[in-house]
Design a protein that fits this description.
230 residues; Pnp Oxidase, Chain A; nine-stranded antiparallel β-sheet; 5 helices; 13 strands; binds flavin mononucleotide
Length: 230
């Protein structure tokens, strides 16, 4: 963790909780759009890993990661059979990587009806989407074979629209609740402007590589953190 990312207690410097570290990383990287892109890994029915990019649209209570997807997509089938997943989130500006492992809860119409907080989060997410994104949830299912003549006549194109106040039943709020977070920060370098040629060998490291594993102990219901070699 960078100096700003640590708190000093009576026993010296101690790492922040992963939730606090993550919120600091998000804040420092918020000016770059790509900082909300993360890679979600699931396991297919055949046992293959399947990884794809998703947009992280929020973090609830400093630890539940929120994103959305189409109920008809392959990742939903994977998660119905095996709800565990890993999200790999890299912050390019601060060179930090979070690998968040846990269980994914999928919130559609039925689940939203039973939980006011999740219903609210799902509706907000739906309303903040671009109209074209919303429309994709009421049009052809992702991953299905595309009809051969689908581009034949653009004049026949009719824009799809989806009701802004009623999420499509295909629209799922996805909640990853981590039980493990592997957090690593990678070295950053400071350019030495007094030197004429900026080669790697004369760049001064501003920060060493560091790595912490945070695990949730289900017995004590507490997070445990240990530092490991990067
Ligand atoms: C920048 C970017 C952001 C994306 N965001 C999402 C997202 O938030 N949710 C989603 O389901 N798919 C998103 N996708 C598409 C997925 O990466 C993937 O192609 C799609 O969901 C189908 O995946 P699946 O067949 O494994 O379910 C995004 C793709 C890119 C390139």
């Amino acid at each position: 963790m960078s100096a700003e990312n640590k708190s000093v207690g009576l026993l010296g410097v101690k790492p922040l909780s992963f939730g606090d570290a993550l919120s600091s990383s998000r804040r420092k990287n918020q000016m770059i759009e790509m900082a909300s892109y993360a890679q979600l890994g699931t396991v297919t029915a055949e046992g293959f890993p399947a990884v794809r990019t998703v947009v992280i649209r929020g973090v609830l209570d400093d630890q539940h990661l929120l994103f959305s997807t189409d109920a008809r997509s392959a990742k939903v089938q994977d998660l119905e059979a095996q709800p565990t997943a890993e999200l790999c989130w890299y912050f390019a500006l601060t060179k930090e990587q979070y690998r968040l492992r846990g269980v994914v809860t999928m919130v559609g119409d039925e689940e939203a009806a039973q939980n006011a907080t999740l219903k609210h989060e799902r509706l907000q997410m739906w309303q903040k989407m671009l109209p074209s994104m919303r429309a994709s949830f009421v049009s052809a299912a992702p991953g299905q074979a595309k009809p051969v003549d689908s581009h034949a006549d653009l004049d026949k194109y009719e824009p799809q629209a989806a009701d802004i106040n009623t999420p499509s039943p295909n629209f799922l709020l996805m909640v990853l609740t981590p039980t493990r977070c592997d957090y690593a920060e990678f070295p950053t370098v400071q350019e030495d402007s007094s030197k004429p040629i900026h080669r790697e060998s004369i760049l001064k490291p501003a920060r060493q590589a560091n790595r912490w594993i945070h695990t949730f102990d289900s017995q004590t219901k507490k997070w445990v953190v240990r530092q490991v070699n990067p």
